[in-house]
Amino acid sequence: MPRYFQRTLLFLSTLSLLLGLAPIVAADPEIDRLLRSPIGRDWVTNGGNLTNQRYSTLTQINTTNVKQLKGAWMTRLKGSGLGGKYSFEASPLVKDGIMYVITGNDDVFALDAKTGAFIWEYWSGINQTISTACCGWVNRGLAMGEGLLFFGQLDANVVALDMKTGKVVWRTAIEKWQSGYGITGAPLYYDGLVYSGITGGEFGVRGRLTALDAKTGEIKWRWYTLPGPGDIGSETWPAGTDHAMRGGATIWNTPALDPELGLVYFAVGNCGPDYDGSMREGDNLFCTSIVALKAKTGEYVWHFQQVHHDIWDYDAASPVVLFDTMINGEPRKGIAEAGRTGWVYILDRTNGKPLIGIEERPVRQEPRQKTAQTQPYPVGDAVVPQCSEGLPGYENFGCIFEPFWETPTLIQPSGVGGTNWSPMPYSPDTGYFYVPGTVRTSAFTRYGDKYVVGKRYVGGTQAAPIGMPMSGTFTAIDSRTNKIAWQYKTPYRIGGGGGSTVTAGGLVFRGEPDGNFLALDAKTGEELWRFQTGFGADAPPVVYEVDGEQFVAVATGGNQLQGSAYGDAVWVFSLKGQLGPLWPPPQPQTVAGPIGPIAAGADSIKIGDQNVEYSYLPARTRIKAGTTVTFTNVGDIPHDATSLKQGEWTTGSLTKGESKSVTFSTPGIQYYICTPHPWMYGQIIVE
Ligand SMILES: [Cu+2]
């Protein structure tokens, strides 16, 4: 929307206020009240309430009795979102004893929250040929209000269902998936509006926050995260070019809202093209930023940029968290966000200024990448290591903000390290943030990319080198100092999904990609309870109460980026539960590279076979020199096979059903990856 139009809307809404035309009564006073209150019996929005704190005041399950926790029920969602292309990262919502949950296929189910019995089901029928999902088919959750459930779909539609029946009430197309857009984040409902982000940062899109009328689905306003000519921030893009119009800056996750200040807050993702900054000189606002807008009108209020001129895919992808605290004896209104950089950014939410301190420090330069002179370094501790070690075969390696060009350069954290989509809860009892992190190094390389509507536009790559260990951390960060209160190393990556929830019972609940669901002591991090769910437990849990009984729920359906086992189950636990654990699923990979047996003489490799979308089968083969190997994509989305030795060979992008043959004449070991999905690995041993 052009600025003048936004201004006109603002003028009209002010006028209607003056004339007494604005509605005085909220459209859904009960939901608004729950959204403004500490989380109790019901869990009515993705982050629990408007703060995204994920802090439940329920205490029936606590540190003294959590050891007795067992499964109250487990319901499998009829195969929805079950398979290799999906992740299951949604938090179920609960209201008046009914649970609502959405899967990676955008299907929604209403279940009896006490028994797990089906009440209704909505099957999205979404087009299975959508090819513009960057990071797996996933939906991070729902919002509710005015008797409706709201969610975004992978085809960039926002949909409202009748909460009683699951029937579609309205559907609004924000954009077309064919142009690279999609929606994976849970929207936020408050006071008659539905706020939704949009994804597509790997496809040259123009990010935005859209506010829709909850009753009708009409778009009330949109605020572009990439400035048009003359807009605030346009001076941070090269003058006279239109690079900002395809600069990504999408919104992955649920906004937060402060009703007293009247502001809506959200985190903005990476710049596009991700790894090529050569043509977009400047800081590139509002990529990788926290932004505050007036909640009613979408008018800009403040921003804070976490990474200037991002070339590392350092999205701000985790939801922002609002909290109130005392600093130097003064009450302060805070906002925090955990970044892929490994830092938590802690700001004053009234003005966007650092609450504890963030220093601009000079960083190493690469003129061809037009790197920013300085980068923000938060005072305090990072939750993951921020330097890469060297490895044989790599000339270049460095720490965070190390620049790179066309020679692969090892940098830690990688663009899928630190905290990615996983939410970070906050407990007012401990004053801690609970931060999930992924420890992973990538080899970053820039190459050129031409912009074509709806095609990948990333300008480079980052793959974890073969043999590189991958793990995680789970850290309590003290909100008053931004320092580590306690930290545990985790065997698996946990920053790319999952997340946790904290309670007034002194517990932190969180899942692991190996299927275990854990309860920790919120003060010390000590593990108090562990339960094997049988599926990758990579979704943020929720806490609720029905008929005086407290329950803890988690969706268990795996996660592509963390390599966990897929599933379609919701597990619910209580002190009266009777269900025991299931057998563990296959363990996630902890070292980068191809896995599985070596097939002797196999010259036909299928991509995405057996419902394992992001895979080569066989992943390892031994052939004689001179053998021609045929790669066939039998998966649902485009893939390729590309030599890790740059420029040596590639199949090019293969859509479903396409094949390409490559002849290997020289003996040696060949490793390859899929360029858009660099966590797919293959190996060909040529003898
Ligand atoms: Cu792929």
Short characterization:
With 687 residues, the chain is mainly beta.
Kindly state the percentage of residues in helix. Answer: under 10%
Which of globular, elongated, flat, extended, rod-shaped describes the shape?
globular
Task: Report the portion of residues in β strands.
Answer: 35-45%
Number of strands: 47
Ranges with pLDDT <50 over ≥5 residues?
A: 16-20
Radius of gyration: 24 Å
User: The biggest beta sheet, please?
Assistant: 5 strands, mixed
Describe this structure in words.
This protein is mainly beta and 687 residues long. The chain is built from 2 helices and 47 strands. Strand 11 (188-190) and strand 12 (193-196) form a beta hairpin. The longest helix has 16 residues, at 3-18. It is globular, with a radius of gyration of 24 Å. It starts with a helix and ends with a strand. The structure holds copper (II) ion. The site of copper (II) ion has 6 residues, from strand 47. Copper (II) ion is lined by residues 614, 639, 674, 676-677, 680.
Secondary structure topology:
Blueprint: H1 3-18, H2 29-36, E1 55-56, E2 70-76, E3 93-95, E4 98-102, E5 108-112, E6 118-122, E7 143-145, E8 148-152, E9 157-162, E10 168-173, E11 188-190, E12 193-196, E13 208-213, E14 219-224, E15 256-258, E16 263-267, E17 289-294, E18 300-305, E19 321-327, E20 330-338, E21 344-348, E22 358-362, E23 374-378, E24 396-398, E25 409-411, E26 426-427, E27 432-439, E28 442-446, E29 460-463, E30 471-478, E31 483-490, E32 500-503, E33 507-511, E34 516-521, E35 527-532, E36 542-546, E37 549-556, E38 569-574, E39 598-600, E40 604-607, E41 616-617, E42 620-623, E43 627-633, E44 642-643, E45 659-664, E46 668-674, E47 677-686
Parallel strand pairs: 1-32, 24-25, 39-42, 40-43, 42-47
Antiparallel strand pairs: 2-38, 3-4, 4-5, 5-6, 7-8, 8-9, 9-10, 11-12, 12-13, 13-14, 15-16, 16-17, 17-18, 19-20, 20-21, 22-23, 25-28, 26-27, 27-30, 28-29, 30-31, 32-33, 33-34, 34-35, 36-37, 37-38, 40-41, 43-45, 44-46, 46-47
The structure holds copper (II) ion.
